[in-house]
Design goal:
Radius of gyration: 17 Å
Distance between the termini: 18 Å
Shape: globular
CATH architecture: 3-Layer(aba) Sandwich
Structural class: alpha/beta
Number of helices: 8
Keywords: Hydrolase
Protein name: Histidine phosphatase family protein
Largest sheet: 6 strands, mixed
Organism: Liquorilactobacillus hordei
CATH topology: Rossmann fold
Order of helices and strands: EHHEHEHHHHEHEE
GO molecular function, one term: fructose-2,6-bisphosphate 2-phosphatase activity
Number of strands: 6
Length: 219
């Protein structure tokens, strides 16, 4: 028996559009975000989802509703789970991406930035930089963030491990990318893309990657 997790990063938001850091700060979907979420809904329209989980941030809930609006099967309710919430970037929330590198170099030095960029586990290394730059904000490190998402998905998976089911998860770029990276997945340079699905199966207490950032139809 296998739980098929369909992991989706929310659609593009206004903060995404203007290249600003977005963790716990919420921002509405753009027209492009809505359009691509609907396109993904059409791609997944023939999959019967037993449950749908989102984070407690509105952009994931809105994306899930759009995806489900295109589904041809019986629709489950959307369950909000704080365990799927994105990392908080502390004082760096809403900062323009192009300002992050100068800030990081100033606080940490070019050596740490370069090491993180070329690290085998690049997502984890970059995640840890935020806590080093803003210690007072108590930002989760990579180990804590991965433990949270793994625990959350494991708890969901255990509810259905005696069945073959499909579970839709709509969450965020960093937390989902870190989870996949820790399963030895090849995460794209700029993390998982908006409104794109990755499939991870859960069986006998273990996760296995099926695909990442899937673009074509899944059957």
């Amino acid at each position: 028996m296998t739980v098929h997790f369909y992991l989706v990063r929310h659609g593009q938001t206004q903060l995404n559009r203007y290249h600003r850091l977005q963790g716990i700060t919420d921002s509405p979907l753009t027209k492009k975000g809505i359009r691509r979420a609907r396109r993904l809904g059409i791609q997944l329209q023939n999959i019967r989802f037993t449950e749908v989980y989102t984070s407690d941030l509105k952009r994931t809930q809105e994306t899930a509703r759009i995806i489900l609006s295109e589904n041809q099967k019986e629709l489950p309710k959307i369950i909000r789970n704080p365990g799927l919430r994105e990392i908080s970037f502390g004082n760096f929330e809403e900062m323009k991406n192009r300002h992050m590198v100068p800030n990081a170099i100033k606080k940490l030095g070019i050596g740490q930035i370069f090491s993180a960029a070329i690290s085998k586990k690049r997502v984890a290394a970059v995640t840890n930089l935020f806590g080093k730059m803003d210690e007072g904000a108590q930002i989760e490190d990579a180990k804590q963030l991965n433990a949270r998402i793994t625990r959350t998905l494991s708890n969901i998976g255990k509810q259905y491990e005696e069945q073959n089911v499909n579970i839709l998860i709509v969450a965020h770029a960093l937390i989902l990318s870190l989870f996949i990276e820790n399963l030895s997945g090849d995460v794209p340079l700029f993390l998982l893309k908006n409104a794109r699905v990755s499939q991870v199966d859960y069986a006998k207490g273990k996760f296995e990657i099926v695909n990442i950032n899937k673009k074509k139809s899944i059957k």
